[in-house]
Amino acid sequence: MDIGPLEPSKAQLLVGLVAFFLILVTLGRVLLPRAERVLAERYEATEGKLEHADALRAEAEQVYAEYRQVITEAHHEAARLRQQASEEGAAAVAAARAEGQRERERLVAAAHASIAMDADLAALELRVHVGVLAIDLAGRVVGEQLEGFSDRAGVVERFFAEPR
User: What is the separation of C-alpha 91 from the centre of its chain, rounded to a whole number of angstroms?
Assistant: First the structure.
């Protein structure tokens, strides 16, 4: 081949080709695997972490959804328990109110009986004392002692028996 002044000698061409293939083999076996490993590490550092973050985010969203579901169920259960407690409280208040009403009626009946008995006793005592006081007062008005008149309790009884 005739390329003019750029034509290399056969020895130079052979040395150049051998050097080229040695460099090519060295690059292919040593340098390219290192470069691929560095590129893979860079990919893992950037894109791999993003994929890992996306996987973690999806897992976190799933856990959050489960958490929200549990919280919602807990809210429903709490509302149900509040309603049940309210109903039980209302029933307890109604029962206590009924018991209080019965107790009040019993106490009022006992008080009425006691008041009636006290009124009867007071009326008896009043009749006795009114008769004595009336005779004593009449004696003072008349100016004489009317003690013998006190034996006639019928006069006092007729006085109280008269309608007013």
Answer: 19
Distance of CA 98 to the CA centre of its chain: 28
Tokens of 48: 């791999």
DSSP structure string for 30-52: IIHHHHHHHHHHHHIIIIIHHHH
| pLDDT average, residue stretch 141-151 | 67
Residue type, 51: E
- Secondary structure letter of residue 86 according to DSSP: H
Average pLDDT, the chain: 86
Is the Cβ–Cβ distance between 156 and 150 less than 8 Å? no
What crossing angle do the helices spanning 49-142 and 153-161 adopt, rounded to 10°? 130
> 């209302």: which residue's tokens?
90
